[in-house]
């Protein structure tokens, strides 16, 4: 029996969509955190972006890796993918990026949060204070590490799209716009999560950071909407296979409603319209806008994965 979530041509299902979404959150947060260092100088502990990155960026990428491993036919063999690289495989290159990204991210966070880490070690593990001394000697690496980590985060966001566009037998996924679409989605995820994190912090610095994030939020939503429309237009201008893929987006069926009502209407346009509301609590408006944006971005990842596999060449 076929359904929107179960059909003969389906190869990658919801765990991969969740993996892509979690990696987007991590990559978007890290890219935003590196750029936010230019806003805030060295006070990482007071930054909503940095605090969200500290807790969520490593966790989400590790959960994404776990989802990817569990989706394999033999999950216990994932270590082989991690040790034997095939640079002609986009999946293998993505795993390599993970292995470079995660340890560098942890080191970068440790360097920015060295005072906090030192205080924690003094209270809990006095014998490990040599680690703090080592981190103090490595403080000069923060800038080069920031540049390298920004490149890796952007590559991870782009590679989400490259991973799917490499599936040549699916005309909807075989689009050069997917990497840009996923990169924009990753940055939007980062902004939404950072705004939600800012609701739990207080102070003038947080208010300034919140204002900067809100100024980025609307243009990113506009770019994401434009990329989605260009993606649909690209299908309309394509060959017969792409025309058949386009039909699933405009035929009034399940995935058509999912795209236009769920992703575009609720996930992109509604948060943009909420920004026009100036009355009421700012906290409530941020909570609603950012929460709806994250839900819309999750819907986008599910849509691209499932609807993209409906049509085969």
From TrEMBL:
What protein name does the entry list?
Answer: NrfD
Which source organism?
Edwardsiella tarda (strain FL6-60)
**Domain of life of the source:** Bacteria
What are the annotated GO cellular component locations?
A: plasma membrane
Keywords assigned by UniProt, alphabetized: Cell membrane, Membrane, Transmembrane, Transmembrane helix
Coiled coil spans: none
Q: Which Gene3D superfamilies match?
A: Formate dehydrogenase/DMSO reductase domain
Q: Does the keyword Repeat apply?
A: no
Positions of transmembrane segments: 12-36, 48-71, 91-114, 145-165, 177-197, 218-237, 257-274, 286-307
> Which InterPro entries does the record cross-reference, listed alphabetically?
Electron_transfer_protein (IPR052049), NrfD-like (IPR005614)
User: What protein family does this chain belong to?
Assistant: Belongs to the NrfD family.
* Topology term for the membrane: Multi-pass membrane protein
């Amino acid at each position: 029996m076929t359904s929107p979530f179960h059909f003969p041509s389906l190869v990658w299902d919801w765990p991969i969509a969740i993996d892509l979404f979690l990696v987007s959150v991590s990559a978007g947060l890290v890219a935003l955190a590196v750029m936010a260092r230019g806003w805030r100088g060295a006070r990482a502990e007071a930054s909503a972006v940095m605090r969200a990155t500290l807790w969520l960026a490593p966790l989400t990428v590790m959960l994404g890796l776990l989802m990817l491993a569990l989706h394999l036919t033999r999950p216990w063999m994932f270590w082989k993918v991690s040790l034997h690289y095939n640079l002609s495989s986009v999946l293998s290159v993505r795993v390599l990026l993970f292995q470079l990204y995660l340890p560098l991210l942890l080191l970068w966070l440790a360097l920015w949060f060295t005072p906090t880490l030192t205080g924690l070690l003094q209270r809990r593990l006095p014998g490990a204070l040599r680690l703090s001394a080592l981190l103090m000697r490595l403080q000069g690496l923060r800038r080069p590490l920031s540049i390298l980590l920004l490149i890796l985060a952007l590559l991870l966001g782009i590679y989400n799209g490259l991973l799917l566009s490499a599936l040549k037998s699916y005309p909807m996924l075989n689009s050069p716009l997917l990497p840009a679409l996923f990169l924009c989605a990753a940055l939007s995820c980062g902004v939404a999560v950072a705004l939600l994190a800012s609701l739990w912090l207080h102070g003038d610095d947080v208010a300034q950071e919140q204002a900067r994030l809100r100024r980025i939020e609307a243009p990113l939503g506009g770019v994401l909407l434009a990329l989605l429309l260009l993606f649909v237009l690209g299908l309309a201008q394509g060959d017969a296979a792409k025309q058949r893929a386009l039909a699933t987006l405009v035929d009034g069926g399940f995935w058509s409603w999912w795209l236009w009502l769920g992703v575009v209407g609720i996930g992109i346009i509604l948060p943009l319209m909420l920004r026009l509301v100036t009355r009421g609590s700012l906290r409530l408006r941020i909570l609603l806008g950012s929460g709806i944006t994250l839900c819309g971005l999750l819907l986008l990842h599910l849509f691209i994965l499932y609807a993209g596999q409906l049509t085969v060449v």
